[in-house]
Amino acid sequence: MTATLLLLGVLATFAGWWLMRQGIASRPWLETGPLEVASPRGAVALPAAKIGLGVFIGVAAALMALLLSAYSMRMALPDWSPPPQPRLLWVNTAVLVVASLALQRAVRAVQGGDREGTGSGLLLGGVAGLAFVAGQLAAWRQLATAGYLPTGNPADAFFYLITAVHGLHLLGGLVALGRTGAKLRQGVPDDRLRLSVELCAVYWHFLLLAWIVLFFTLAFSPSLDWLVALCVAPFR
């Protein structure tokens, strides 16, 4: 259960931070002043797109947590033999960090009305995302060449499954980035563009956090038992 607790803890913290920034904890009934300016960022004012993204992230996080839970339980059986982790995965992790930082740069640019900076941030994020996907495919090829195939061992199959699920979510993020870039080229109003860029950035931050948990679980899960023991000790 170590992997599941790690993923749920990290993603719950991220979700709580994001919702607080959206004003989900505000109390509009206590606000004073004209109705049209009271609690401009209250929970009731959240755009439907942000609510939808929050729901989607929750579902995606639950799916990944279930996968890691199954991974942790299957790991206890005697036939478990995890494959070596290609060093390329470390490079891929750094590339995904670059993508997340680029999207955050795009957010700052669009908030300042800098469309050129917004475009460069989106472009860098998209290129880094494509590089991550290419790197993951290259890592798969390295493992397959070395004889570690999905049919070889349950640990091998879980590695391919978990990384594939994350990769599919990342491809969805690339589609969203492409649509946001198209909005920028079409000259949509600043408020619509800002919302799209912010949603892309939040999703890519989620992808980064999810990948860090997934990667470190795949690479170091047997050595993290002390962490779950530390987490549950106060409740015993």
Main beta sheet = none
Spans of at least 5 consecutive residues whose pLDDT stays below 50 are 24-44, 223-235
Helix content bin: over 70%
Shape: elongated
Tally the helices: 7
Alpha carbon gap, first and last residue: 16 Å
The number of distinct structural domains comes to 1
CATH class type? Mainly Alpha
Look at the structure and name the CATH superfamily. Answer: Cytochrome c oxidase, subunit III, four-helix bundle
Topology pattern, helix = H, strand = E: HHHHHHH
Averaged pLDDT: 80
> From the helix content, strand content and strand pairing, which structural class follows?
mainly alpha
Rg, nearest Å: 20 Å
Q: What is the number of strand segments?
A: 0
Strand content: under 5%
CATH topology: Four Helix Bundle (Hemerythrin (Met), subunit A)
CATH architecture: Up-down Bundle
